UniProtKB/TrEMBL annotation:
It comes from the Bacteria. InterPro entries: BacA/B. Belongs to the bactofilin family. Residues 134-147 have a biased composition (Polar residues). It comes from Ferviditalea candida. This is Polymer-forming cytoskeletal protein. The lineage of its organism: Bacteria, Bacillati, Bacillota, Bacilli, Bacillales. Residues 113-147 are annotated as: Disordered. Pfam families: Bactofilin.
Length: 147
C-alpha cells in the first residue's frame, strides 16, 4: 500500500561528508561518494569515490571506485580505479588498485598491487626502512651505457 520506490543513487555524487572536528566510529557503507575531513574509525565500503581531506584521518580498510588521500589513512586500500596520494597524503597500509599516483611529498608505507582491467597484475613491495618513494628503476638501467 505504501510501497516506496527505491531511487537509484548516483555514485558520481558526494552525498556524505564527515566534517572536521567530527569523529565517527563504525562501518560505513555508501552507494555514492564520501568525503572525510574528520576522523573515522572503522571500515569503509563505497560504490563511488572516497576522498580523505587534508585534515581527515581514517583508521580503516577502504574499498571504493577511486580513492584520493590528502590526509592520513592507517589501513588497506582496494580500488577498481585510481588511488591518488596528494603531496599531503599519508598511507600506512597496502594498496590494490588499477592506477597509482603518488605526488612528491606524499608518504606511502606498505606494498602495492596493481591490476589492469585485463586481470594482469604487478606487485611492488617497500621495506619499512624506506623513507621515500624511489623514482628510479635501476634494474632497467644498462650500466655499460652510463657515463
Amino acid at each position: 500500500m505504501f510501497a516506496k520506490k527505491k531511487s537509484k543513487v548516483n555514485p558520481n555524487t558526494t552525498d556524505t561528508i564527515i566534517g572536521e572536528g567530527s569523529v565517527f566510529e563504525g562501518r560505513i557503507k555508501s552507494e555514492a561518494g564520501l568525503r572525510i575531513e574528520g576522523h573515522v574509525i572503522g571500515d569503509i565500503e563505497c560504490q563511488g569515490d572516497v576522498e580523505i581531506g587534508e585534515h581527515g584521518n581514517a583508521k580503516s580498510n577502504i574499498s571504493a571506485r577511486n580513492i584520493t588521500i590528502a590526509g592520513t589513512v592507517h589501513g588497506n586500500i582496494i580500488t577498481k580505479g585510481a588511488l591518488t596520494l596528494t603531496p599531503t597524503g599519508k598511507l600506512y597500509g597496502n594498496s590494490n588498485a588499477e592506477s597509482l599516483m603518488i605526488a612528491q611529498g606524499a608518504i606511502f608505507h606498505g606494498s602495492s598491487k596493481m591490476e589492469s582491467k585485463t586481470g594482469t597484475s604487478v606487485t611492488a613491495e617497500k621495506s619499512d626502512s624506506e623513507k621515500s618513494v624511489q623514482t628510479e628503476f635501476p634494474q632497467y638501467i644498462n650500466k655499460s651505457n652510463v657515463g
